Prior knowledge:
Structural class: alpha/beta
CATH architecture: 3-Layer(aba) Sandwich
Low-confidence stretches: 1-48
Mean pLDDT: 84
Order of helices and strands: HEEHHEHEHHEEHH
Largest sheet: 6 strands, mixed
Strand content: 5-15%
Number of strands: 6
CATH topology: Uracil-DNA Glycosylase, subunit E
CATH class: Alpha Beta
Amino acid sequence: xxxxxxxxxxxxxxxxxxxxxxxxxADTRAAAPATDSGVAAPALAVADxxxxxxxxxxxxxxxxxxxxxxxxxxxxxxxxxxxxxVGRRDADLLVIGEAPGADEDRQGExxxxxxxxxxxxxxxxxxxxxxxxxxxxxxxxxPPGNRDPRPAEIRQxxxxxxxxxxxxxxxxxxxxxxxxxxxxxxxxxxxGRLRGKVASxxxxxxxxxVTYHPAYLLRSPAAKAKAWQDLCLVRRLIRESE
Length: 242
Protein backbone atom coordinates (compact mmCIF):
# COMPACT_ATOMS: atom_id res chain seq x y z
CA UNK A 1 0.00 0.00 0.00
CA UNK A 2 3.03 2.21 0.10
CA UNK A 3 2.46 3.17 3.72
CA UNK A 4 5.21 2.07 6.07
CA UNK A 5 2.91 2.49 9.04
CA UNK A 6 0.70 -0.21 7.61
CA UNK A 7 3.01 -3.06 6.72
CA UNK A 8 1.36 -6.33 7.64
CA UNK A 9 3.07 -7.90 10.63
CA UNK A 10 2.70 -11.07 12.64
CA UNK A 11 -0.69 -10.84 14.39
CA UNK A 12 -0.70 -10.68 18.18
CA UNK A 13 -3.26 -13.15 19.45
CA UNK A 14 -3.39 -11.66 22.92
CA UNK A 15 -6.32 -9.34 23.54
CA UNK A 16 -5.24 -5.96 24.89
CA UNK A 17 -6.38 -4.94 28.34
CA UNK A 18 -6.73 -1.36 27.08
CA UNK A 19 -6.99 0.22 23.66
CA UNK A 20 -5.77 3.77 24.07
CA UNK A 21 -3.57 6.02 26.11
CA UNK A 22 -6.82 7.13 27.67
CA UNK A 23 -7.87 3.57 28.55
CA UNK A 24 -11.33 3.64 30.06
CA UNK A 25 -13.58 1.31 31.97
CA ALA A 26 -16.47 -0.43 30.23
CA ASP A 27 -19.83 1.29 30.08
CA THR A 28 -22.19 -0.02 32.72
CA ARG A 29 -24.94 -0.91 30.28
CA ALA A 30 -25.98 -4.50 29.89
CA ALA A 31 -25.09 -6.37 26.74
CA ALA A 32 -27.66 -6.10 23.97
CA PRO A 33 -29.51 -9.21 22.82
CA ALA A 34 -27.98 -11.03 19.90
CA THR A 35 -29.56 -11.36 16.49
CA ASP A 36 -30.03 -14.72 14.79
CA SER A 37 -26.51 -14.41 13.45
CA GLY A 38 -25.13 -13.82 16.92
CA VAL A 39 -24.24 -10.18 16.19
CA ALA A 40 -25.61 -7.54 18.52
CA ALA A 41 -28.02 -5.07 16.97
CA PRO A 42 -28.37 -2.29 19.55
CA ALA A 43 -29.48 1.29 19.34
CA LEU A 44 -28.11 4.19 21.31
CA ALA A 45 -30.63 4.03 24.11
CA VAL A 46 -30.80 7.04 26.40
CA ALA A 47 -33.41 7.99 28.95
CA ASP A 48 -35.98 10.47 27.63
CA UNK A 49 -33.85 13.17 26.01
CA UNK A 50 -36.63 15.45 24.82
CA UNK A 51 -35.38 18.17 27.16
CA UNK A 52 -31.76 17.74 26.10
CA UNK A 53 -30.16 20.60 24.11
CA UNK A 54 -29.49 18.17 21.25
CA UNK A 55 -33.23 17.62 20.83
CA UNK A 56 -33.71 21.32 20.13
CA UNK A 57 -30.90 21.51 17.58
CA UNK A 58 -32.46 21.44 14.12
CA UNK A 59 -29.20 21.58 12.18
CA UNK A 60 -25.41 21.51 12.37
CA UNK A 61 -24.91 25.09 13.49
CA UNK A 62 -27.44 24.80 16.29
CA UNK A 63 -25.98 21.47 17.40
CA UNK A 64 -22.42 22.82 17.44
CA UNK A 65 -23.58 25.81 19.47
CA UNK A 66 -25.36 23.53 21.94
CA UNK A 67 -22.16 21.54 22.45
CA UNK A 68 -20.07 24.70 22.94
CA UNK A 69 -22.47 25.97 25.58
CA UNK A 70 -23.06 22.61 27.29
CA UNK A 71 -22.90 22.58 31.10
CA UNK A 72 -24.69 19.28 31.68
CA UNK A 73 -21.77 17.60 33.47
CA UNK A 74 -18.75 18.69 35.45
CA UNK A 75 -16.37 18.33 32.49
CA UNK A 76 -17.22 21.86 31.35
CA UNK A 77 -15.31 23.18 34.37
CA UNK A 78 -11.96 21.74 33.28
CA UNK A 79 -12.10 21.73 29.48
CA UNK A 80 -10.13 24.16 27.35
CA UNK A 81 -12.77 23.87 24.64
CA UNK A 82 -15.28 21.35 23.38
CA UNK A 83 -14.36 18.92 20.62
CA UNK A 84 -17.44 18.71 18.41
CA UNK A 85 -16.23 16.69 15.43
CA VAL A 86 -14.71 17.26 12.03
CA GLY A 87 -15.20 16.14 8.44
CA ARG A 88 -17.83 15.81 5.74
CA ARG A 89 -21.34 16.25 7.02
CA ASP A 90 -22.66 13.80 4.43
CA ALA A 91 -19.83 11.29 4.81
CA ASP A 92 -20.21 7.62 3.95
CA LEU A 93 -18.17 6.70 7.03
CA LEU A 94 -18.57 7.97 10.59
CA VAL A 95 -15.57 7.25 12.84
CA ILE A 96 -16.33 7.32 16.57
CA GLY A 97 -13.72 7.36 19.29
CA GLU A 98 -13.86 7.64 23.06
CA ALA A 99 -13.02 11.13 24.32
CA PRO A 100 -10.68 14.04 23.61
CA GLY A 101 -7.14 13.88 24.95
CA ALA A 102 -4.81 16.74 25.79
CA ASP A 103 -3.97 17.56 22.15
CA GLU A 104 -7.63 17.43 21.13
CA ASP A 105 -8.62 19.65 24.07
CA ARG A 106 -6.06 22.27 22.96
CA GLN A 107 -6.88 22.15 19.25
CA GLY A 108 -10.62 21.46 19.35
CA GLU A 109 -10.34 18.60 16.85
CA UNK A 110 -10.62 14.84 17.45
CA UNK A 111 -7.76 12.46 16.74
CA UNK A 112 -4.75 14.73 16.39
CA UNK A 113 -1.16 14.02 17.37
CA UNK A 114 0.52 10.68 16.62
CA UNK A 115 -2.68 8.66 17.03
CA UNK A 116 -4.47 11.03 14.68
CA UNK A 117 -1.71 10.70 12.09
CA UNK A 118 -2.04 6.94 12.22
CA UNK A 119 -5.81 7.13 11.87
CA UNK A 120 -5.33 9.31 8.79
CA UNK A 121 -2.94 6.69 7.35
CA UNK A 122 -5.43 3.91 8.15
CA UNK A 123 -8.19 5.72 6.28
CA UNK A 124 -5.90 6.53 3.36
CA UNK A 125 -5.01 2.84 3.10
CA UNK A 126 -8.62 2.06 2.14
CA UNK A 127 -8.89 4.99 -0.24
CA UNK A 128 -10.47 7.56 2.09
CA UNK A 129 -9.01 10.98 2.80
CA UNK A 130 -9.46 12.22 6.34
CA UNK A 131 -11.60 15.09 5.10
CA UNK A 132 -13.93 12.65 3.32
CA UNK A 133 -15.12 10.98 6.55
CA UNK A 134 -16.65 12.40 9.71
CA UNK A 135 -14.74 11.91 12.96
CA UNK A 136 -16.26 12.37 16.40
CA UNK A 137 -16.00 11.14 19.96
CA UNK A 138 -18.57 9.90 22.43
CA UNK A 139 -17.53 12.63 24.87
CA UNK A 140 -17.17 16.19 23.62
CA UNK A 141 -14.99 17.30 26.55
CA UNK A 142 -11.72 15.92 27.86
CA PRO A 143 -11.87 14.11 31.22
CA PRO A 144 -9.31 15.69 33.57
CA GLY A 145 -5.97 13.97 33.44
CA ASN A 146 -7.32 11.66 30.73
CA ARG A 147 -9.16 9.67 33.38
CA ASP A 148 -11.83 7.13 32.50
CA PRO A 149 -15.12 8.56 31.22
CA ARG A 150 -17.88 8.17 33.77
CA PRO A 151 -21.24 6.62 32.86
CA ALA A 152 -23.12 9.80 33.77
CA GLU A 153 -20.88 11.84 31.46
CA ILE A 154 -21.44 9.39 28.62
CA ARG A 155 -25.22 9.52 29.15
CA GLN A 156 -25.25 13.32 29.01
CA UNK A 157 -23.14 13.43 25.84
CA UNK A 158 -24.81 10.59 23.94
CA UNK A 159 -27.71 12.69 22.55
CA UNK A 160 -25.18 14.94 20.80
CA UNK A 161 -23.64 11.94 19.09
CA UNK A 162 -27.07 10.55 18.23
CA UNK A 163 -27.95 13.82 16.52
CA UNK A 164 -24.69 13.81 14.57
CA UNK A 165 -25.43 10.26 13.44
CA UNK A 166 -28.91 11.27 12.27
CA UNK A 167 -27.63 14.34 10.39
CA UNK A 168 -24.81 12.47 8.64
CA UNK A 169 -26.77 9.30 7.80
CA UNK A 170 -23.54 7.39 7.04
CA UNK A 171 -23.29 4.13 5.14
CA UNK A 172 -21.11 2.64 7.90
CA UNK A 173 -19.75 3.39 11.37
CA UNK A 174 -16.24 2.53 12.57
CA UNK A 175 -16.00 2.27 16.36
CA UNK A 176 -12.39 2.98 17.30
CA UNK A 177 -11.22 1.45 20.58
CA UNK A 178 -12.70 -0.55 23.39
CA UNK A 179 -14.65 2.16 25.16
CA UNK A 180 -16.36 3.43 22.01
CA UNK A 181 -17.15 -0.13 20.92
CA UNK A 182 -18.53 -1.23 24.27
CA UNK A 183 -20.73 1.83 24.60
CA UNK A 184 -22.08 1.81 21.07
CA UNK A 185 -22.77 -1.93 21.21
CA UNK A 186 -23.93 -1.82 24.83
CA UNK A 187 -21.60 -4.69 25.61
CA UNK A 188 -18.95 -5.51 28.18
CA UNK A 189 -17.10 -7.96 25.94
CA UNK A 190 -13.40 -7.32 25.21
CA UNK A 191 -12.57 -5.66 21.94
CA GLY A 192 -11.05 -8.86 20.58
CA ARG A 193 -14.52 -10.42 20.62
CA LEU A 194 -16.32 -7.37 19.25
CA ARG A 195 -14.14 -6.79 16.19
CA GLY A 196 -14.15 -8.92 13.04
CA LYS A 197 -17.93 -8.85 12.56
CA VAL A 198 -20.68 -6.47 11.49
CA ALA A 199 -23.32 -5.17 13.88
CA SER A 200 -26.52 -3.42 12.84
CA UNK A 201 -26.48 -0.16 14.73
CA UNK A 202 -29.08 2.45 15.60
CA UNK A 203 -32.66 2.84 14.47
CA UNK A 204 -31.58 2.78 10.84
CA UNK A 205 -29.47 -0.34 11.42
CA UNK A 206 -26.30 1.23 10.07
CA UNK A 207 -23.49 -1.35 9.67
CA UNK A 208 -20.93 -0.94 12.45
CA UNK A 209 -17.42 -2.37 12.61
CA VAL A 210 -15.07 -2.31 15.61
CA THR A 211 -11.31 -1.84 15.41
CA TYR A 212 -8.38 -1.05 17.69
CA HIS A 213 -7.56 2.49 18.77
CA PRO A 214 -4.59 3.99 16.85
CA ALA A 215 -2.88 4.77 20.17
CA TYR A 216 -2.95 1.06 21.00
CA LEU A 217 -1.59 0.21 17.55
CA LEU A 218 1.32 2.57 18.14
CA ARG A 219 2.22 0.56 21.22
CA SER A 220 1.38 -2.84 19.71
CA PRO A 221 2.17 -2.68 15.97
CA ALA A 222 1.65 -6.43 15.55
CA ALA A 223 -2.10 -5.78 15.95
CA LYS A 224 -2.11 -3.70 12.75
CA ALA A 225 -2.76 -6.86 10.74
CA LYS A 226 -6.08 -7.33 12.53
CA ALA A 227 -6.91 -3.65 12.19
CA TRP A 228 -6.27 -3.93 8.45
CA GLN A 229 -8.87 -6.71 8.29
CA ASP A 230 -11.38 -4.42 10.02
CA LEU A 231 -10.64 -1.60 7.59
CA CYS A 232 -11.13 -3.89 4.61
CA LEU A 233 -14.48 -4.95 6.05
CA VAL A 234 -15.58 -1.31 6.35
CA ARG A 235 -14.44 -0.59 2.80
CA ARG A 236 -16.46 -3.56 1.51
CA LEU A 237 -19.58 -2.46 3.39
CA ILE A 238 -19.41 1.03 1.95
CA ARG A 239 -18.92 -0.23 -1.59
CA GLU A 240 -21.73 -2.73 -1.31
CA SER A 241 -24.13 -0.01 -0.17
CA GLU A 242 -23.40 2.33 -3.08
